[in-house]
Structures are given as structure tokens and as C-alpha cells.
Amino acid sequence: MIRYDNRVAIVTGAGTGLGREYALLLGSRGAKVVVNDTGGAMSGRDGGSSSAATAVVEEIRAAGGEAIASSDSVAEPASAQRIIGVALNAWGRVDILINNAGILRTGPLQEMTLADIEAMIAVHFMGTLYCTRAALPHMIAQAYGRIVLTCSGVGLRGLADHSIYGATKSGMLGLMDSIKLDCKDNGVIINTVAPSAETRMSKDTIRPELARHMSPRVVAPMVAWLASENCKQSGALLSAGGGYFYKVAFYKGRGVQFDPAQPLTVEMIDENWPGICDMSQVEPFMGTLAGLEPNLRKLGHL
Questions:
Q1: All domains of the chain, ordered by start, with CATH?
Q2: Contact 77, 126 (CB under 8 A)
Q3: pLDDT > 70: percent of the chain
Q4: Is the pLDDT of residue 139 over 90?
């Protein structure tokens, strides 16, 4: 049985929905959990209370687990540092960080206020960055850590009126891929989950016949596994929703290689556009230069 005894976990945005289920599951399996939630409205504009986090802490404790509430925001460097500090002050370490906190403000990009745009970026992207940055030195020092970032189907495929939300969520992939390389030799594993669940944030966006099968509870096992010692893979993107789990990866077509030593025109792009976009023969995308080098070698340039 996979357990988290003697492990300290931080779950942001854990007062409701997905984060709550992550915290409850980890707590039920022996993890000491910092339940972080500001207790504000989904938009992040109103409210602010420790009651949501405290309620989850009480649930964990009632089931025999250990937990502490945190109501600091992830959106400022100092407050994000305090979230990590709660774990360090109480238990002396941090082993697991699940970056789940989020707000939602929607609308066409041209109609969104700058304040709304900045708030979304501050919570989703910068909040993840701040918390991860604060936790990493401690994980590296102890040669162990499990970090989970949160992407979204909107970040992968888009959704009308969700441009900023989608942009911040797709940003998780670039952040993950680089941190993975920074931490490849020090025991810190980082992965990203793209969850789909019926929550207050997704309300009315999932058809009712699907929504009844999409409890946050059936997403939590994937996130808990990514936070476990058994998880050795770093840099993966996993989709989870309705009990359906799968890895998402990027692929490239064969493309068209022109000789860079010869003149290249716009018309050549136009004429070869079908071949450039042909995806009938794909291979894993390993970076923008990964396919260039063998092609140049075939041309005799390397």
C-alpha cells in the first residue's frame, strides 16, 4: 500500500474541490498536510477567510491524520514563502508540493481589464513559481521532493473567453520541463496534471451526463501517485478525469528540410506548406534542434 508516513505535504487551494480531495487523500495515508486556501471567492475579488482551510484540517484530524491550515496567498513572494514556512516550522521539512491554487476571470482578451489579467497571472503562474521556488532549496538539501503543477485542457486546446487562464496553464509545461533538468540529479521529481472535474470553477462547462461521473475524488489518486516515492518519472503531463488517465506528449511531423546554404524564399514555404504540416509520420518532439542536426548531417553541413 502506498503511504506517505513521515512525509510533509503542502496543497495550495485545498479548501474546496480538487485541492480538498488531494489533501484528504494524502492525510488519510499518513502525510502531514499543510492545507492552504485563502477562502476567497472563485474570482479572487471577494472574501478571504481561514474557514475553508480549517474545515479540511478538521476533517483530516478527525480521521486520525495531522494537518495545519494556511490562509496565505500564493500570489506574493513573501506570502508564498510563509506557506512553505508553515511546514518547516511545524515539521522541519517539505517533501510534497501540489500547486493547485487558482482563480477564474473570463472574457475576450480585448475586453479584459489589465487588473484581471495581472490577477490571473499572479495566482496561476507566479503563484506556482513562487511556491515552487520557495520549496526547492529544502527539497534539494534533503535530496527528495515531489512537485505537482496544474495544467488544464484549456491550456492545451484553448476555450473561448479563457485566453489568460489558458496561457497561464500552458506555461506550466515550460516551467516543469526546465525545473526537471535543473533537478535531474538531486532527487526532486516534478510533473504536471491536467485535471477535469465538476468543481465550482468548471460549473456549467461540463455536460450533466458527464459531470455526474467527474467528481474531484476520482482525480486525486493520480495526483497522490505523482506525489509518492513510487513516482520516478519527471517531466510528464498526465490527464486525469472521470477515472480516465493518460499521458499527453508532443509530436512532430517529418517536415521539409531546405538547404540553409541556398537561398530560401517565401514562395518555397508556400509551395511546400502541405509537407511542412504533414503529420502522417510523426515522432516524439524532443526540442526544436533535435531534428535539425541529423538533417544537416545528411546535407553534408556537419
A1: 8-248 (3.40.50.720), 251-298 (1.10.287)
A2: no
A3: 92
A4: yes
* pLDDT computed for residue 302 by the predictor: 81
Which one, of 38, 22, 180, lies nearest residue 96 by Cα?
22
Lookup: cell for 263: 537561398
| Rounded Cα gap, residues 144 and 161, in angstroms | 40
Residues ≥6 apart with Cβ < 8 Å to 5: 30, 31
Q: Record the cell numbers describing residue 3, joined without a space.
A: 503511504
Q: List active site positions.
A: 165
Residue 29: CB partners within 8 Å, gap ≥ 6? 1, 2, 3, 4, 224
Query: Which residues neighbour 109 within 8 Å (Cβ) at sequence distance 6 or greater?
Result: 163, 164
Mean pLDDT of 179-198: 94
How far lies 62's CA from each of 54, 67, 124, 209, 249, in Å? Answer: 12, 10, 31, 34, 40
d(CA 230, CA 30): 15
For the entire predicted model, the pTM comes to: 0.93
Separation between Cα atoms, residue 134 and residue 82, nearest integer Å: 9
The neighbour count for residue 57, using CB atoms within 10 Å, is 24
38: exposed, middle or buried (Cβ count in 10 Å: 0-12, 13-18, 19+): buried
- Is 242's pLDDT higher than 60? yes
**Res. 200: pLDDT tops 80:** no
